[in-house]
Design goal:
Blueprint: H1 9-43, H2 48-76, H3 86-116, H4 122-164, E1 165-168, E2 173-176, H5 185-219, H6 228-263
Antiparallel strand pairs: 1-2
Helix pairs in contact: 1-2, 2-3, 2-4, 3-4, 3-5, 3-6, 5-6
Length: 264
């Protein structure tokens, strides 16, 4: 029957491994969010970078949670993913959390760049003075655009299922026969555009910060003492480079997925 599924030893081992990795990531992000909340209660205020990190930690925690649920259902109870509107809702929630994660990570890189890099341009000076007021709007804008994309993802997948599936029984279960067609190309286009914009923001921030670091190092060559600005540049560069690596891997995976899907 559709409600029964016998898991093999390979399935159980896969679930255990993925669960351990997922719960480790959830623990790390949950711990970071808890520490930030405790610090907020003690100080009675949030710094701008703490707001971004808290939002980022919550997004990652929820994304890992919903991804684990999706994986768990696909292995042990695959029939659940044929019940309308479970696949649409899971995909939409994953899209919202994933794009929120991407955009908030890009916001963190831009924040580090504006806060630490030293440039004399009037626009950069203006942003440096207003960045603390801009951060809440950046977070709100990231959440809004992620919500818009998740709604579009829901509609695209729902339309694709409706046009490429046959209903059985009373219409509650679907026998899916989904193919890569015109319905999914807008989905990949949206994903690619979101990744590309966020990736460009990270790379641009890294280049500006690297240039600022190089110029600051040239000025400080005669100073043998420890410089706090230099340390801040280096720490920010490490964070942005780690984000750049993650974005590069995700973007490469998206391109490979698109190439693979179009050949199916």
């Amino acid at each position: 029957s559709q409600g029964k599924f016998n898991a093999t030893s390979y399935d159980v081992m896969t679930i255990v491994i993925i669960s351990l990795q997922t719960f480790a990531g959830m623990w790390i992000n949950g711990f970071m969010a808890s520490v930030l909340c405790i610090a907020c209660l003690k100080k009675k205020s949030f710094n701008s970078n703490e707001k971004i990190l808290l939002f980022l930690g919550c997004c990652r925690f929820c994304y890992l949670s919903i991804t684990w649920v999706y994986f768990f259902l696909s292995i042990l109870y695959p029939w659940c993913l044929y019940v309308h509107p479970i696949p649409q809702l899971l995909s939409a929630i994953q899209s919202f959390l994933n794009f929120s994660n991407l955009w908030v990570s890009a916001c963190l890189c831009v924040f580090y760049c504006i806060k630490i890099a030293n440039f004399r341009h009037i626009i950069f000076i203006y942003l440096k003075g207003k960045i603390d007021r801009i951060v809440p709007w950046l977070l709100l804008g990231s959440a809004f655009f992620s919500l818009v994309i998740s709604i579009l993802v829901y509609n695209i997948i729902d339309e694709a299922h409706s046009n490429n599936s046959n209903s059985t029984g009373q219409g509650n279960f679907w026998k899916l026969n989904i193919k890569m067609d015109e319905h999914f190309f807008p989905l990949f286009f949206l994903s690619g555009t979101g990744f590309a914009i966020a990736f460009m923001a990270v790379i641009f921030s890294a280049l500006l910060l690297l240039f600022s670091l190089w110029r600051h190092k040239c000025r400080m060559q005669t100073n043998s003492g420890k410089n706090l600005s230099m340390d801040a540049h280096v720490k920010a560069m490490k964070s942005i480079l780690s984000f750049s690596f993650i974005y590069s891997v995700n973007f490469a995976c998206l391109i490979l997925t698109l190439i693979y899907a179009t050949k199916k």
